[in-house]
Amino acid sequence: MEKSKAIETISLSKNYGKTTGIKNLDLTVERGEIFGFIGPNGAGKSTTIRLLFNLIFPNSGSGKVLGYDIIKQSKLIKFKTGYLPAEVNYYYKMTVKELLEYSQRFYGVNDSKRINELADDLDLKTNLKIRDLSLGNKKKVSLIQSLLHKPELLILDEPTSGLDPLIQSKVFELFKKENERGCTIFFSSHVLNDVQKICSRVAIIQKGSIIKLESIDALRKKMLKKISISFTENQNDINLELPATVDFKRVNNQMNFLFNGDMNELISYLANFQIENISIEEPTLEEIFLHYYQNAESGNEL
Question: Where along the chain do its domains lie?
Answer without folding.
Answer: 7-220, 225-282
